[in-house]
């Protein structure tokens, strides 16, 4: 972690305590435009390059860890980006309880925490329950774009999306390679760069909304009486 005085940039940072009900993205960004959400933005590398490459898109980053959140806000503020906002929050709670229906054009989820121990798998963000919330929030042609270095988590992503494909809620599509990905990179985030040095492979999967009314959330073991 680089040590420098981090500035708060109130035009970039949205404070969780200031949210009152469902988030009005047009009001948050001061304009109506397609909304892309990144879950677990880390130091904000994806958002900085993507927001520069696509000025007509509003980018909304969610990061739980305070030190990364503050670093990302400082970085975006220094770049003078007007089409990106950051919030420090638990993404599962935020999407489920505070995102409006039909409001997000793309969810980007890159190298989410894999929680490798089996007893911790229920903490993984990309699960059936959170996919239900994502589907509610997606616009009619909305997408999810996912990458991970973790094979077992990739298998879980494939299973969760496979159920959405089987019931007709979503359809497969090609992974969208982010603007910041350099030669040899698939995503171009800090974690991909770190994992590439360790010789780890990047797995990707992506999907587009087909018909959200068809989504059938499977009954999980802990729901069975
Ligand atoms: C492995 S890092 C990947 C960061 C970045 N996407 C990248 O590829 O470099 C996972 C990030 O997700 C954040 N995170 C984990 N759980 C989260 C949650 N429930 N809500 C928001 N952020 C979360 C972590 O704090 C961490 O910064």
Features:
225 residues, Rossmann fold, eight-stranded mixed β-sheet
Describe this structure in words.
The protein is of the alpha/beta class and about 220 residues long. The protein has one domain (about 30-215): Rossmann fold, CATH 3.40.50.150. About 30% of the residues lie in helices and about 20% in strands. The chain has seven helices and eight strands; from the N terminus they run E-H-E-H-E-H-E-H-E-H-E-H-E-H-E. The protein has helices at about 25-30, 45-55, 65-80, 90-100, 130-135, 150-165, 190-195; strands at about 15, 35-40, 60-65, 85-90, 105-110, 140-150, 170-175, 205-210. The chain has an eight-stranded mixed sheet with strand order 1-4-3-2-5-6-8-7, sandwiched between helices. Helix 2 (about 45-55) links the parallel strand 2 and strand 3 (about 60-65). The longest helix is centred in the last third of the chain and has 16 residues, at about 150-165. The chain is globular and about 45 Å long. The mean pLDDT is about 95. S-adenosylmethionine binds near residues 42 and 68.
Blueprint of the fold:
Elements: E1 13-14, H1 25-29, E2 35-39, H2 45-53, E3 58-63, H3 66-79, E4 84-88, H4 91-98, E5 104-110, H5 128-137, E6 138-148, H6 151-166, E7 170-173, H7 190-197, E8 203-209
Parallel strand pairs: 1-4, 2-3, 2-5, 3-4, 5-6
Antiparallel strand pairs: 6-8, 7-8
The structure holds S-adenosylmethionine (SAM).
The site of S-adenosylmethionine has 21 residues, from strand 3, helix 4 and helix 7.
């Amino acid at each position: 972690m680089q040590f420098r005085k981090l500035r708060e940039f109130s035009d970039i940072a949205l404070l969780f305590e200031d949210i009152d009900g469902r988030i009005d993205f047009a009001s948050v960004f001061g304009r109506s435009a397609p909304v892309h959400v990144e879950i677990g933005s880390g130091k904000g590398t994806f958002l900085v390059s993507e927001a520069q490459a696509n000025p007509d898109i509003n980018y909304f980053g969610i990061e739980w860890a305070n030190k990364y959140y503050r670093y990302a806000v400082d970085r975006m503020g220094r770049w003078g980006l007007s089409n990106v906002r950051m919030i420090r929050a638990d993404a599962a709670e935020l999407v489920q309880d505070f995102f409006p229906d039909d409001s997000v054009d793309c969810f980007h989820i890159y190298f989410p925490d894999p929680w490798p121990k089996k007893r911790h798998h229920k903490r993984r963000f990309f699960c059936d329950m959170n996919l239900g919330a994502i589907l509610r929030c997606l616009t009619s042609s909305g997408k999810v774009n996912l990458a991970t270095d973790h094979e077992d988590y990739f298998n879980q992503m494939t299973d969760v999306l496979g159920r959405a494909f089987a019931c007709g809620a979503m359809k497969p599509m090609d992974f969208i390679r982010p603007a910041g990905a350099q030669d040899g990179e698939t995503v171009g985030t800090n974690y991909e760069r770190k994992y590439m040095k360790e010789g780890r492979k990047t797995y990707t999967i992506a999907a587009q909304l087909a018909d959200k009314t068809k989504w059938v959330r499977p009954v999980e073991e802990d729901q069975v009486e």
